[in-house]
């Protein structure tokens, strides 16, 4: 706490000095003697001692803009362009804004051949593409691409490897312009070595279909990795192996090749030190990429042996034996054919321990439930993606896609509780196959047509055994067993027409979809056989029209769709189990560019949906080993309204970026089974309840501070949730949750042997329920201080310190300290590493979870201390 208290005033002093500075805005234009604008002219702002302060280039209209907060009293502004004589003028830092006009004369001086060495700008912006020169942002400790991305202004990487750019989610990471990883981009960012990357490009409004270029800008943002020239056209292999105390081990091998004809990346790794090289979340084993999200929704598990570890970074709780392998390739046998293939395999053995004390209230009786639980999971997952793209002509192409995913998870749980000792076993087998055909025809320079066919098939089998039986059923019984078989299949046809006339872009969309689900559920105990069968079909007809106005600074898009949706339980006759809705759904998008750096955007949408089959099945067994529960069996539509407002300021040259986002989401009802509202709040039953209202205000700020050669980052997230829950027949409860998250970081970039990273995170949660009337406040604080030491080009040392203070303000707050060590010595192609994780050997972590019915205090086992020696060799 003393260290954290010292850091905070330092941040305040830095902030005061930052905002006390005078900002000078320089606007100008560059023309030749014939009054023709000169594009891509270099504009350099220097001190009188020739130190470069800022750099930019003119656009196609000859315009440029520079902003500086430097306290120098006199500047030199230099204008250069190939074939013209250089011009420079002197500026006084006595005003806030300067407008300049330059006329460059053609150069007629003949020069002898010379070698010119220039320092390329760290950041370049060209329309929708921002290019980062990687070498300008490195401090020496970067091992893989993800480590680079964390250093780049405007790019954020969370603990699970998800990437955002200017607050917007990145959907793909390309290699030299090709999509090598599809939606599993974390395979690349977590495993490709940083040493081979020269540039990172952030591309906004990206479209991967060349036949649609120029017709309609997408809202997709991607990253493109540029590799060094000496890496191309030859295989690059690196391998590492390490072993140490407490049987800690780590081994990794990867091979990458880049050429015009073929690009490939092969990777294999295994470790038990908490490193996650996969795109999967260790707790859920799900890959939550956008393309696979619909698969996850349709394959919701009715039974799950869950484990959570809130607040702490994920690697602190991974007690694992990970094995992961992947193969990725883009092959272009001809100019007209591109074949993309991805395959990955993941296996693990996870051991979790948990002790909890739960106080239930609001039911007929108040009671405590004390349990000691050991959970073992052995997941085996495999998946892949194959795409064949054929250019039929200059105007037509066709693509064939196949996605496939398979899961086989064996889960065991041993539980000592108030009412005896239980053991439970879950066998979960699941596979998903998606087939897709896309055809695109560029009808003319301003119109195009796309046709899509999607087929979907999934099968999931869950076998859950609880021994002995639940006391709430019959205490004399020895065993309960539940078997669930869930099958899904679907088809979707879609046609889209695009037309652009001048400043107006239009699109017309027609979609037909049908999904059929079959669930068979059997619960056995004694001689009583409880069975459920559900054959459920959801159909959808969608007709949509979008009109977009593209002006110089304004983009206004308005859309209206008409939808007919129908859901039927084919085993039932009652009208209550059938539903049909038809409605209009509007969408409005507004983007306004205020100037070169500032942009305002808004989005409003409205939609309705019908429940999935997994939302309706009654009489399932909860895996918390406490009760049987019946869901509310009905087909009710859910409507959703959302409003998003965003303001973005992005001056990447000066590394000054901030954005403000307001989100409002209103659902008229909700379906849930242990649905996570926030890491502290859960809906504990599969029920249909009144909807939720969410208000979220997010703020992010990033600024490079030249006077201390450091970047400061600040993020704030305020959210207010209103939702309902109940357990069995208890009264419906209204719950209100308020969450306040604040994060402040400062990372140095000294060109010296020592750098630092320090920061803090504040989390405040307030939970209130109306029945019984209850309010709880919970505060957690996290701080870290990392030292990055580079005595020479061959030696690098990082010391990572994390501190957590939980339940702050209560009688017995908990404190946790973690320390990691990474020492690397490099001699040519070989590196020797000493890796230490969790060296202070924290063995347990305490948490508190709150619902409208209960308060649970938990004690969770953590990753034990790991220390090992690793040797890495790079064959390049």
Task: Report on the architecture of this protein.
The structure is a single chain. With 876 residues, the protein is mainly β. Helices cover 4% and strands 61% of the residues. It is built from four helices and 49 strands. The strands form seven sheets. The chain has a 26-stranded antiparallel barrel. It has a seven-stranded mixed sheet with strand order 8-9-13-14-12-11-10. A hairpin with a 2-residue loop joins strand 22 (396-417) and strand 23 (420-444). The chain starts with a helix and ends with a strand.
Total strand segments: 49
The residue-averaged pLDDT reads: 80
Low-confidence stretches: 1-21, 109-120, 285-296, 469-478, 526-530, 618-632, 674-685
How many DSSP H or I helices? 4
Q: What is the terminal-to-terminal distance? A: 47 Å
**Main structural class:** mainly beta
Helix content: under 10%
Strand residues, percent: over 45%
Q: What is the CA-based Rg, rounded?
A: 29 Å
Shape: globular
Largest sheet: 26 strands, antiparallel, barrel
């Amino acid at each position: 706490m003393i260290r954290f208290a010292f850091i905070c005033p330092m941040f305040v002093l830095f902030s005061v000095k930052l905002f006390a500075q005078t900002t000078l805005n320089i606007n100008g234009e560059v023309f030749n003697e014939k009054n023709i604008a000169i594009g891509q002219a270099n504009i350099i702002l220097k001190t009188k001692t020739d130190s470069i302060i800022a750099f930019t280039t003119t656009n196609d209209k000859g315009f440029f803009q520079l902003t500086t907060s430097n306290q120098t009293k006199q500047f030199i502004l230099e204008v250069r362009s190939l074939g013209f004589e250089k011009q420079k003028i002197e500026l006084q830092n006595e005003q806030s804004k300067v407008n300049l006009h330059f006329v460059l004369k053609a150069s007629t001086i003949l020069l002898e051949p010379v070698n010119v060495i220039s320092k390329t700008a760290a950041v370049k912006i060209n329309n929708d593409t921002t290019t980062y020169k990687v070498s300008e942002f490195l401090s020496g400790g970067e091992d893989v691409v993800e480590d680079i991305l964390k250093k780049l202004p405007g790019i954020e990487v969370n603990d699970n490897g998800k990437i955002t750019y200017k607050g917007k989610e990145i959907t793909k990471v390309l290699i030299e312009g090709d999509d090598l990883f599809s939606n599993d981009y974390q395979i690349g960012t977590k495993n490709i070595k940083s040493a081979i990357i020269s540039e990172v490009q952030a591309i906004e409004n990206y479209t991967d279909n060349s036949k649609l270029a120029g017709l309609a800008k997408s809202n997709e943002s991607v990253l493109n990795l540029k590799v060094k020239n000496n890496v191309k056209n030859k295989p690059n292999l690196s391998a590492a192996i390490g072993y140490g105390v407490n049987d800690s081990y780590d081994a990794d091998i990867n091979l990458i090749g880049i050429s015009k004809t073929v690009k490939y990346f092969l990777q294999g790794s295994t470790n038990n030190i908490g490193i996650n090289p996969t795109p999967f979340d260790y707790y859920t084993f799900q890959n939550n990429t956008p393309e696979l999200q619909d698969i996850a929704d349709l394959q919701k598990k009715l039974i799950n042996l869950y484990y959570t570890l809130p607040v702490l970074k994920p690697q602190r709780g991974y007690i694992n034996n990970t094995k992961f392998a992947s193969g990725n390739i883009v092959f272009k046998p001809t100019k007209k054919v591109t074949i993309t293939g991805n395959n990955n395999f993941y296996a693990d053995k996870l051991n979790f321990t948990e002790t909890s004390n739960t106080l239930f209230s609001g039911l007929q009786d108040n009671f405590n439930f004390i349990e000691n639980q050991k959970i073992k999971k052995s997941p085996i997952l495999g998946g892949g993606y194959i795409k064949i793209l054929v250019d039929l002509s200059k105007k037509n192409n066709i693509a064939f896609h196949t996605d496939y995913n398979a899961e086989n998870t064996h889960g065991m749980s041993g539980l000592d509780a108030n009412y005896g000792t239980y053991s439970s076993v879950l066998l979960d087998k699941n596979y998903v196959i998606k087939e897709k055909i896309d055809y695109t025809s560029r009808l003319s320079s301003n119109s195009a047509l796309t046709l899509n066919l999607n087929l979907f098939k999934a099968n999931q089998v869950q076998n859950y055994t609880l021994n002995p039986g639940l006391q709430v059923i019959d205490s004399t019984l020895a065993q309960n067993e539940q078997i669930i078989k869930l099958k899904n299949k679907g088809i979707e046809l879609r046609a889209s027409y695009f037309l652009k006339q001048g400043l107006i872009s239009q699109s017309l969309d027609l979609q037909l979809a049908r999904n059929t689900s079959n669930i068979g559920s059997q619960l056995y105990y004694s001689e009583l056989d409880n069975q459920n069968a559900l054959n459920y079909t959801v159909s959808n007809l969608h007709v949509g029209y979008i009109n977009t106005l593209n002006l110089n600074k304004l983009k206004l898009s308005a859309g209206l769709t008409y939808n007919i949706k129908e859901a039927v339980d084919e085993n039932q006759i009652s009208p209550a189990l059938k539903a049909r809705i038809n409605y209009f759904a509007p969408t409005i998008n507004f983007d306004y560019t205020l100037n070169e750096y500032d942009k305002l955007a808004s989005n409003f949408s409205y939609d309705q949906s019908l429940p999935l089959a997994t939302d309706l099945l009654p009489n399932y067994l909860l895996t918390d080993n406490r009760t049987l529960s019946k869901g509310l069996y009905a087909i009710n539509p859910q409507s959703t309204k959302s409003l998003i407002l965003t303001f973005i300021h992005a001056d990447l040259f000066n590394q000054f970026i901030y954005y403000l986002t307001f989100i409002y989401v209103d659902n008229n009802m909700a379906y849930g089974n242990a649905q996570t509202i926030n890491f502290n709040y859960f809906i504990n039953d599969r029920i249909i309840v009144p909807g939720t209202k969410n208000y979220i205000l997010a703020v992010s700020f990033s600024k490079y501070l030249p006077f201390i050669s450091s970047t400061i980052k600040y993020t704030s997230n305020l959210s207010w949730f209103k939702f309902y829950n109940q357990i069995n027949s208890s009264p419906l409860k209204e719950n209100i949750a308020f969450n306040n998250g604040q994060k402040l970081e400062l990372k140095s970039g000294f060109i010296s042997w020592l750098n630092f990273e320090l920061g803090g995170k504040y989390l405040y949660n307030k939970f209130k329920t109306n029945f019984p009337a209850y309010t709880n406040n919970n505060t957690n604080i996290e701080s870290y201080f990392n030292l990055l030491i580079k005595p020479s080009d061959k030696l690098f040392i990082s010391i990572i310190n994390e501190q957590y203070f939980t339940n702050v303000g209560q009688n017995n707050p908990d404190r946790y300290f973690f320390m990691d060590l990474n020492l690397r010595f490099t001699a040519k192609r070989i590196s020797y590493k000493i890796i230490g994780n969790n060296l202070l050997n924290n063995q347990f972590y305490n948490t508190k979870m709150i619902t409208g019915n209960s308060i649970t205090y938990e004690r969770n086992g953590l990753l034990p201390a790991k220390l090992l020696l690793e040797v890495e060799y790079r064959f390049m």
